[in-house]
Amino acid sequence: MESSASLELAKHTLLMFGIILAVGTFSGLIARMARIPDVAVFLLIGMLIGPGVLGLVDIKADSTINQLIMIFGSSYILFDGGASIKLRVLKEVWITILVISTVGVLITAAITGFAAWYFLGLAPIIALLLGTVIASTDPATLVPVFKQIKIKDRVAQTVMSESAFNDAMGAILTFTVLGIALGAGQFSIGDALADLLKQSLLGIVIGGVLGYLAAFFISHEKFGFLAEFAPVVTLMAVISAYMGADGMHASGFMAVFVFGIMMGNQESLGFKLTRHEDNLLENYVMTTAFIMRMFIFILLGTQVDFGLMNQYLLGGVAVVVVFMLVARPVTVFLCALPDRRAKWSFREMLFMCWTRETGVIPGALAGMLVGMKAPGAQIIASVTFIAILMTILIQATTTKWLAKKLGLLVE
Questions:
Q1: Cβ–Cβ contacts within 10 Å for residue 394, how many?
Q2: Assuming Cys at both sites, which of 104, 140, 322, 334 could form a disulfide with 360, CB separation 3.0 to 4.6 Å?
Q3: What own/partner pairs with CB < 8 Å and gap ≥ 24 does 30-38 have?
Q4: Based on the number of CB atoms within 10 Å of its own CB, is 43 exposed (0-12), middle (13-18) or buried (19 or more)?
């Protein structure tokens, strides 16, 4: 009896998942032995087993399976990052987070756009579009790095919070500039800010409500009847937070991040898990987050288009160098230095200048532009992949070394 096409596809997909799990586990072991963030090793291994080299795994960027993994994986990693955030720390640095997540994205996009215009000879509006695509930092990269490397609390939590909060701004700015490039509209600061405020506030409300309810039914002394099902509840709530926010045209990533903050600060809300239940939930989240980043970054590596990258390699590298060494430092100092409440030291700001990895979110935006056949989409996708490779392989792997040199490492 012949197998149906859908059954064969299912078997093929299952085989690729098995390969990813096998090589991912081995890669995680290598990363631990080498004492570097595992996302960098996952990315390299993905490039090796992808269609460009060995051809063991070939899942298209625009496929349903890939989109499902990217959306859920990023959401879960962001939830994990939110759970690491302490409210007492946010109270101290919230001004910096707010400014760098909004104004900071504009500054980074403008400087990177100028570099793209200068080095690649792009039309100003296309160069700006490229700048907006890669302007936001990536929580799927940064959260795992700071989970593995213990950095001074307020620095690590500021960078992680920024990566969660600036996604909405990056997406809004990208599609605003795209509208201008297509001749479909004019840039309006008022409209952009109103849209950002709406997306952010709705995301915060949805994540906050779901987070409180989850904590209530898991940890309440009298009504916590779901305590033993805490892992399943968090899984369900992460999906609900993202889909609920997305359905209301709000920031789904903002919602899952705030949900994580609520779950990670249950004692501040008046709830408390038993030690056994807390350990069970922590181990579950840690294992699930590891699997998610394994899939995300190995798949991201398999989807690197070497031909496209080579086409714009020199100019793209020049743009990313400006992006890393000029745009980010200018952004950090302009946004963090005026915050008298946080009183950032020069060493802390210098460290934040170096930690701004690019990853899944910019990659997804670039992929959407290619799918829409937007002006300059191919060159934007090429430079985005160069930015992903350079920032993860150079910045992520040197995070611990720099933190130690600057005295920000917590042993």
A1: 14
A2: 140
A3: 35/400, 36/396, 36/397, 36/400, 37/144, 37/145, 37/148, 37/149, 37/396, 37/397, 37/399, 38/144, 38/148, 38/290, 38/293, 38/294
A4: buried
Whether pLDDT at 328 is above 90 = yes
> Does 141 share its domain with 171?
yes
Is the per-residue pLDDT at 221 higher than 50? Answer: yes
3-state secondary structure of 376: coil
* 410 occurs within a structural domain: no
Assigned domain for 397 exists = yes
| Residue partners of 343: CB distance under 8 A and separation at least 6 | none
From 100, 84, 82, select the one nearest 151 (Cα to Cα). Answer: 84
For 48, the 3-state DSSP assignment is helix
Q: Please give the average per-residue pLDDT across 30-55, as a whole number.
A: 85
In order of 23, 85, 237, 310, the CA distances from 299 in angstroms are 12, 28, 25, 20
Q: What count of other Cβ atoms lies within 10 Å of the Cβ of residue 105?
A: 29
Share of the chain above pLDDT 90, in %: 22
- Whether residue 228 is found in the same domain as residue 318: yes
Residue 286 CA from chain centroid, whole number: 17
Structure confidence by residue, pLDDT tens digits, 50-69: 888 888 888 887 788 888 88
User: What does the alpha-carbon distance between residue 3 and residue 114 come to, in Å, rounded to a whole number?
Assistant: 55
Q: Are residues 54 and 74 in the same domain?
A: no
Q: How many domains does the chain have?
A: 2
**278-296: average pLDDT:** 83
Domain containing 89 equals 68-405
> Which runs of consecutive H residues, i.e. helices, occur in 57-150?
64-83, 87-120, 124-133, 139-148
- In single-letter form, the type of residue at position 49 comes to I
* Confidence category of residue 83, pLDDT binned at 50, 70, 90: confident
Instruction: Identify which of 216, 230, 215 has the alpha carbon closest to the alpha carbon of residue 280.
Output: 230
Which whole number is the average pLDDT over 29-53?
85
> Whole-angstrom Cα distance, residue 378 to residue 369?
8
d(CA 100, CA 70) in angstroms, rounded, equals 25
